[in-house]
Fold this protein.
Amino acid sequence: MAKYSLEIIPKPAKDTRTVLYTDNKIIFFKGGGSDNYYCGCCDYLLCESITRTQIQNIVLKCPECSAYNELKGS
């Protein structure tokens, strides 16, 4: 598995980006790919076994540290 740290970004302005968040300590996406994506701030696993181009232009708010992580997809 390849390990990638996501880019931390400022909180997006309302209604400008798709932001996924939860109060539960979960992994947002699990798949059959070969890449794992971690919070760029605290190294919390956010996406497990996905393919880089599967998910694009989404912001994930880390359930561990509340940092906003950009998932670009390419």
